[in-house]
Amino acid sequence: MKDFIIPAFPPGDDRDMGTPARSGAPVSLTIDGFEVTVPEGTSVMRAAAEAGIQVPKLCASDNMEAFGSCRLCLVEIDGRRGTPASCTTPVAEGMVVHTQNEKLRRMRKGVMELYISDHPLDCLTCAANGDCELQDMAGAVGLRDVRYKAPENGGLANHFAQRDGAGPNANYIPKDESNPYFTYDPSKCIVCSRCVRACEEVQGTFALTIEGRGFDSRVSAGAATDDFLTSDCVSCGACVQACPTATLQEKSVIELGTPERSVITTCAYCGVGCSFKAELNGDELVRMVPYKHGKANRGHSCIKGRFAYGYAQHKDRILKPMIRDHIDEPWKEVEWDEALAFAANRMRGLQEKYGQKSIGVITSSRCTNEETYLVQKLTRAVFKNNNTDTCARVCHSPTGYGLGKTYGTSAGTQDFDSVQYSDVIMIIGANPTDAHPVFASRMKKRVRAGAKVIVVDPRRIDMVRSTHIRAEHHLPLRPGTNVAVVTAMAHVIVTEGLYDEMFIRERCDWDEFQHYVEFARDPRHAPEAIEMLTGVPAADLRAAARLYATGGNGAIYYGLGVTEHSQGSTTVMGIANLAMLTGNIGREGVGVNPLRGQNNVQGSCDMGSFPHELPGYRHVKLPDVRAIYEQAWGVEIDPEPGLRIPNMLDAAVEGTFKGLYCQGEDILQSDPDTHHVAAGLAAMECVIVHDLFLNETANYAHVFLPGSTFLEKNGTFTNAERRINLVRKVMAPRNGYEDWEVTQMLANAMGAGWHYTHPSQIMDEIAATTPSFAGVTFELLEEKGSVQWPCNEEAPEGTPLMHVDGFKAGKGHFMITEYVATDERTGPRYPLLLTTGRILSQYNVGAQTRRTHNSIWHDEDVLEIHPHDAEQRGVNDGDFVRLASRTGETTLRAVVTERVATGVVYTTFHHPTTQANVVTTDFSDWATNCPEFKVTAVQVSPSNGPSEWQENYNRHAELSRRILPAAE
Q1: Using CA atoms, how far apart are residues 9 and 14, in angstroms rounded to an integer?
Q2: What proportion of the chain, given as a percentage, has pLDDT over 70?
Q3: Which of 108, 271, 370, 673 is placed for a possible disulfide with 922 were both Cys, Cβ 3.0 to 4.6 Å?
């Protein structure tokens, strides 16, 4: 089947309309003789653009508020004196506007002369040639000559050079090349302030300012000693995108030239699911530009999606299949047929020797829905068992369980746009600015507009306090006490009569509510009763509960700090209870919103990656559900749930589980209790790793099947708001195949007889068998851009808001949320509690971002420790320390900081040299086996360097990655 081709001019008007869209009563006016009707509050500039009339502009852009500094967009309005700026002038009923006449042309040409007289005229060699708004506007106003004489040797650059004593022959001010991804050339700056405003209004970092006056004006990235690398700049690219000249320019464009074509696709990093235009010269990717009509990101991006795509071309990528008989042997490169036959024969042999259930699969939350669907189909239809699991269970399975029990669905309730209507935002166990930065920018914008924030987190994240952001309440709870805090909030709401009785009577099970009220009002749940347990002052907790219940639209956003606990499912149910108690469900600005970690965590859950559920969250034991797939696949499906990853590893150590196909996951680095994971993998007789790089899991693999990046495939991702976005092939797969094709070839090598020719056919099968996807087709996604499931006959264009008129379960169910302490306890030997998380510049296990320039910002995992705890242990900032728990130890550098409370330490898990999960335990959520990453009792002590385990591991990894030279 022929690939879907994105047209030269993609769907949706991609023009910059100058100023933001407004909503309001219709207003009619006349512009250059054309009658236009637009919403009240719309600028004259945007109204003209709506009529197809482009008013020249330099400082205006439709993702920022009007500024009115460039004076190029002047117009005349009948009945008004002067020539107002069209960007800052709102429309009025009956207004008559003239955008073109001799007077305006003369004035615009004069303004443009002033800009050009102070700008280097090196257009032919400039990196922005052909992609420069200053150049375009000079042509638009008809400027062909400049009457004004520039300072000797030309332009602002020499003005600064002479001022600073560099002499009359200096030709430029030094560029700021410090940032690895873009350059700042002040000689080309026209001081339009677009970069500064983008940093403030779009990103919300406030890293840039304009310093100086007149000819001395220039963009500054901070203090006099700061550059773009050392400043507060987060390298999101908003300033680069906003710049109308080559002042801020991608280094890739400077090196590779201005791109000539683009393909719209979806980012493969976090669960926000940003849409990008991949811009190319031929088949060479030049840059990734956030797509303004992307409904998840609305034209914004972060450092990872915008710049960290270089891993696709990294020298470490494995592009040829490899095999070996034993894991202590070097790898041998082979052709695809040989590798697939080797893998298929091994897996079939294991089943013949050890039984049908002796092998299984792990699906990927980085791969597409279609690829994930095929992997779980492989185990059910070809292996004939249900041994399928995914990293989505390792991070967010309590979301599915908890929301399923309370609301009847296993996903978040809102779209991202909903946050702009929130009055109170509660963030619990999530760090949006680091893990979901594009959505965090929208959240911060709403906070600056007046919304109040409650942060429930052991660590003082940026949403507690940063530039122009200050949380109303920070509840720094002890790790592991989420349930106690959430139930205490419910106690306050119930005992003070702050609940929404009308909502509860109409939408929820009233009898269950009565039982829940009896539970919640028990004095043992009072904030005062749990203060010693949680470490949260009772008065602060009470105030936070009152604010959430009475502050207007209340939205809850949570992350892995909720789910990765022994009571993760209980906490999710407690959060759902809070939303129902206060009526904060079923409309814009409210809801329960899990912030998914990886790009397709939601999709991998939707596609049936769990051992007990078929696609669409339907239990495998149900005969009518199995019948759907038995008819579609022509096989009999095992009614017994299969093994989760921990069970697979346990069974491997016991000798009953022998073979694993692992697509796009690195369980040795990402899963808890690394020693146990290694032992389980080492006990298996055939481990097939399907990935981009020889990751840590591949140290124990017998077959390596090279994978393809998101740039090299077609398919769909489903983001944290249930939004299904198309992933479009930007370039040919460097390994020769898309990942779904590799899975199909493996299945066929084992006798499956699959015949898919395009991912759209796989989606058609998903739609035919999964009710929530029943209306989803590639054609619909091309037409709409994206849709949110459920998408079916009842909602043919998708469902942005869930539970508007009622819950899928019928009535909402209040669940009892009894606090049960984790089995992981601190004591004299291990007195501190370790919790883990992510950092902005790195992603998950770092396999992708470590192979980009992002490592300049974060080249190693570090341990955050409070000054009091550090002083007690004789630890100074930057020292190597030993981090030890009951399960293992590692070493890393310490950062002494008050971002963590006393008794709590924090680290990330991005670098395999640290292997932070060697210290985490095998305790897990009572309902889903989601690992308890966030609560580990540890001790910290000074160290001289790597631990013995690290040294042994590094030696083993080096031996495991030997590749025999290709035969001559």
Answers
A1: 8
A2: 96
A3: 673
